[in-house]
Amino acid sequence: MASPKYASLDGEIVAWNDARVHIASAGFKFGTGVFEGLRGYWNADAKEMYLFRMAEHMKRLEFSQRFMRFDEIITAETVTEKTIELVQANSFKGENLHIMTTAYVSGMGGPGVCGPVGLAITVQERPRSDRVIGGVTAQVSSWMRVPDNAMPMRVKCNANYNNGRLATVQAVADGYDTAIFLNSRGKVSEGPGMCFFMVRDGVPITPSVTSDILESITRETVLEMIEEVFGVKPVERDVDRSELMAADEAFFCGTAWEVTPVLGIDRVNIGDGAIGPMTKRLQDAFFAVCDGSSGTHAEWRLPIYGTAATVKAAE
Ligand code: PMP
Fold first, then answer.
1. How far is the CA of 237 from the centre of ligand 1 (A)?
2. In CATH terms, are 6-127+296-314 and 131-275 the same topology?
3. How many Å apart are CA 287 and CA 293, to the nearest integer?
4. Is the Cβ–Cβ distance between 193 and 164 less than 8 Å?
5. How far apart are CA 207 and CA 17, in angstroms?
6. Where are the domains of the chain?
7. What is the β-pairing status of strands 178-182 and 136-144?
8. What is the pairing mode between strands 195-200 and 249-254?
């Protein structure tokens, strides 16, 4: 896919190839940055692009910056305005988007450097992937999820993602699509970049927020939607590894993974090895909420082109 025309760097719209950071910055050297991945959903009938749960992502980005003790906090308002400006500048219409908003330490020095803080935003077209629809296989990783008192996954810090990288490359090398982490207590945690749900006897179950996971916005969305769609209260609790083999259905969820069926774990089929009925219903309902075709939960969608934002597309 061709590169977008523009990126946004430190508040300015710049040509894609000019969006560079210095090699001596802490952001580059130590991954001293925090980020949010978001999605834009195109609705062809409304001719509108909706950013999904922008406010919640921006709240988390502010939290991550505070947690990492950045000198300066780039506010939700600024990042929202700059993101809308960038989508408009690229005139993205007709396809779903993946957006990365990164607040990073542009200052030079060691890992303790706390500023200045820069803002980098990229937006790229990203159609829904086949694996989201068709499902994936997963390996219970021999890599442990980093514990909260070492490198908290609750904080969306760039450097954390090398834990997920190790598990992903191992899983792929071993012939799986992705990985499931256990945490330092040996309980199921999450995937490298997504949360995990399983269904047992009609009840969706997911590891609690004290399982060394990111407090995922899609997880919250799904927890709410499960009650709406099935009239069943989902359960948040510790999940044992052995329960994975007892699950009738399983799925991952996250901004990039949306609702993705898990077909097998460690080469054992989940259910009959195809997308489960509750997962399928939930997936359809989720897609319809994201692009607005369900007409429900307007509060979760920020329209880009009908927005009151005064920002103008750059020529
Ligand atoms: N866990 C991790 C480690 C992630 O990186 C992500 C993606 N942001 C998720 C879970 C899912 O979170 P969200 O639904 O907020 O995208």
1. 18
2. no
3. 8
4. yes
5. 41
6. 6-127+296-314, 131-275
7. parallel
8. antiparallel
Match 């009151």 to its residue by tokens. Answer: 308
Pocket test for ligand 1, best of 54, 64, 178, 194 (most atoms within 8 A of CB): 194
Q: CB–CB of 200/247 below 8 Å?
A: yes
How many Å lie between the centroid of ligand 1 and the Cα of residue 314?
A: 31
Digit-by-digit pLDDT tens for the chain (315 residues) are 789 999 999 999 999 999 999 999 999 999 999 999 999 999 999 999 999 999 999 999 999 999 999 999 999 999 999 999 999 999 999 999 999 999 999 999 999 999 999 999 999 999 999 999 999 999 999 999 999 999 999 999 999 999 999 999 999 999 999 999 999 999 999 999 999 999 999 999 999 999 999 999 999 999 999 999 999 999 999 999 999 999 999 999 999 999 999 999 999 999 999 999 999 999 999 999 999 999 999 999 999 998 544 333 333
> Looking at ligand 1, which residue's alpha carbon is closest to its atom 11?
254
Give the ligand 1 atom nearest the CA of 60: 15
Q: Which residues contact 96 (CB under 8 A, 6 or more apart)?
A: 39, 40, 41, 42, 125, 126, 127, 128, 291
Indicate if ligand 1 lies below 6 Å from the C-beta of 216: yes
Ligand 1 atom with least separation from CA of 255: 16
Q: Measured between alpha carbons, how far is 4 from 13 in angstroms, rounded to an integer?
A: 12
Report the CATH architecture of 131-275: Alpha-Beta Barrel (3.20)
Nearest ligand 1 atom, CA 195: 10
Rounded Cα gap, residues 25 and 99, in angstroms? 23
> Quick one: fold of 6-127+296-314?
D-amino Acid Aminotransferase; Chain A, domain 1 (3.30.470)
